[in-house]
Amino acid sequence: MKRRKISKTSGRTSLRYRLAPSKLRWTCPLRCLKFKTTDDIKVSELTRAGSRCDTVGQRRAVDALALGLEIETTGYNIFVTGPVGTGRTATVKQMLERFKDQQQELGDKCYVNNFKDPDQPRLLRFPAGQGHRFRQEMGEFIEYLVENIPVQFESDSYQHSRTEIVDSFKEQGSARVREFEKKVAKEGFALVQTAPFMKPDLAPIIEKQPVKIEALPGLVEQGKLAEERSEEIKVKFRELSDELTAIFKGIRDFERKAREALLELDHNIVRPVLDERLGDIGERHGDGKVREYLGEVRDSILSNIDLFRQRPQEKQQEQAAADPFLEYRVNVLVDNSHTKGAPVVFETNPNYKNLFGGIERVWDRSGQWRTDFTKIKAGSVLRADSGFLVLNALDVLIEPGVWPALKRTLRNRRLEITAHESLFPMFSASALKPERVAIDLKVVMIGDPYIYSLLAAYDEDFKKVFKVRADFDWVMDLNDDSIEQYCRVVKVLCEKEKLISFDRTGVQRVVEYGVRLAGRRQKLSTRFNVISDILKEASYWAGKANAKAVASGHVEQAIEKRRDRVRLYEEKLQEMIDQGTIFIDVTGKAKGQVNGLAVYDTGEYSFGKPTRITAKTGVGSAGIINIEREAQLSGPTHDKGIYILAGYLRNKYAQDQPLILSASVTFEQSYAGVDGDSASSTEVYALLSDLSGLGIRQDLAVTGSVNQNGQIQPIGGVNQKIEGFFYTCKAKGLTGTQGVLIPRANVDDVMLRSEVVEAVAKNRFHVYTVETIDQGIEILTGVKAGKLGKKGNYPSDSVNGQVKKRLSELAGIYKSFQAEKEGEEKEKAKKKRPGLKKD
After folding, report:
1. Residues 194, 202: contact at Cβ < 8 Å?
2. H-state helical runs in 105-207
3. Crossing angle between the packed helical segments 528-544 and 504-518, to the nearest 10 degrees
4. Per the CB 3.0–4.6 Å rule, which of 508, 571, 755, 837 could disulfide with 28?
5. Residues near 257 by Cβ (< 8 Å), separated by ≥ 6?
6. In this predicted model, what pLDDT tens digit does every residue of 163-191 receive, in sequence order?
7. Could you report the per-residue pLDDT of 80-111, keeping only the tens digit for each?
8. For the chain, percent helix, then strand, then coil, each to nearest 5?
9. Residue 19 and residue 756: Cα distance in Å, rounded?
10. In angstroms, rounded to a whole number, what is the distance separating the alpha carbons of residues 476 and 483?
11. Helix, strand, or coil here: 731?
């Protein structure tokens, strides 16, 4: 068998793709840190008081917030978006602080009884502090009536006037009765009182005794009374009965007039007190609706004057089941007597009742639910009226009924307070429908960009009520000014949290960590919640070491300890690699096998680890089979990467011959879902290796996505992937040839740990950058990729030449097989065809 010659690449080829140690990590220049410790940094009082670090790098968001908070137009509520930890809530708090000192016309809101329709309580508005005063005055007014009206009714003058009225009408009725008694006596009748307080009956006198009119027929039969006399008595009885009825009708008129006279007497006694007291209250609260309400109170008291006639017993009051004067009470919903400036409310539990208020109900002594206007309670929306209400978007959306009610309230600028049970009508027991409240407030909702996108896409009312978006960025540009701002951040947080001062090296390491968090060397992270935690923990370790200032070593210790707390899963995976449970080779060569790199994200920590990717090719026309997809473990982006990979092969090798092959690609020992296209270049390398028969270096790992032109595109998580393979190689033993291939477009994203940079500097590990598949395959195989010649062929000793040759062989074998198969089928068809009959 003749050995084929292949063109080896020189060591210089790999060297020109190798990344220098200086390119693997950005170091903060000490010239930017013009201080010895953070105590030397000058910070303005405004910055210190407002913790201005929360708005560092957020110019766009701050400008949007300023617009939304200051513009006084309907619908300009604010939706704040951005990742957690970028200072969204802190910045909103800080910007709202200035509104607390601004003069604002605030008012109190009260519900009172609607005497015309008790099911619809009335709303009264007062200047700030007046609502509480009005309630107090109405309470004192009722107490005054309770104490003084009985005294008026017990006075001698009242009793004398009452007696005169009663006696006058009583004498008129008695006189008519006496006259009638004389008349009936002359006619031989008598008045018989059968029951007290009832009209007397007429009874004829027979043999000096009154008898009932019904007894007359019996007397006639007994011969005691002549029939003619009986008829005369009956006629006279009817006449006198009619007269008696007329007399007692007149007496009832006397009684009615007596009651009216007594009521008018009561009114004359009480009315001056009511007019005086209510007049004073009305003068102090000159609103038209208040005076109208006080007029209704006056009329109601005059109509229910008996409620105040008797002195209340203290013991009875204590044991009373309900307040007898409830309808005259005042329910103060919002009391702004102690509020200065615009109210700012942060509602952390925005359920329906907390946000919009509700109508409470209680059990009475009879075991029934009871409610009234005094059970109406205000929510955060009312408390924030004329001010600002801050909500978390996710909390609002998951609470039943809250989002539709919030939209309706903001759109109509009216709040309707309902019983919370109205969401569940079967349990509702309240028919109250309080008067709607006109509101004027700004709502600031804080959420992530995904929630904003969903609402903007699927809720047509969303953009009508939230017209301002304040988008917080997670990174900012890296320059001298931003470094200076980071220094001030450290200074302010040290003062705020009472931390040990940081020296120049400590701040330097914090800034470098901010670049690492940002994921790009031209950017700084604005996730100050993470930066703040690092500062606190670094100060802790400096304190444990009795250091006077926090140095870079303490910051590094804090970062390492923080990482160690959450890397259990990473260590378990590494253990399986070390034990050989997960197959990973870091030395030698293998055909159709490449070390890919995957990033694992646990939610609080992400890390990279190598994963074996293999490809196998053979005769057939199935094309490239994505085993992950066949097993339903592949995500849509990974599927797309496979299709792009196939497009690259067609573009590269099928311009003058058909691409006929069956190939399979898989992530070995992968039992969970796979997504992303960062391994598509790795899959190409595995296919090219299997087709060309050239082994792939197992001491190298690869990452990068590929397009149909063969260009290597940037990917995410480049630092985690490089470090993941480094620690795997370190565990198995560094040889000095191991390394990682990354896209050249990711060079500015590289910010490796010091340990990895040191290993690269000592030539114990390497990082290569490639722009095309050809560059990568040369490094991985040690063989030139080969360029397309003028005749449309690749050099036979190149990788591309070997690949194309193998593809031609596969296509030829497939065609020969198909031709042979078709010939066999034709022979079978001839044998089955029946012979022709001869004549």
Report:
1. no
2. 130-154, 156-186
3. 140
4. 508
5. 169
6. 877 777 777 777 777 787 788 887 788 87
7. 999 988 889 989 998 998 877 777 788 999 99
8. 50, 15, 30
9. 13
10. 10
11. helix
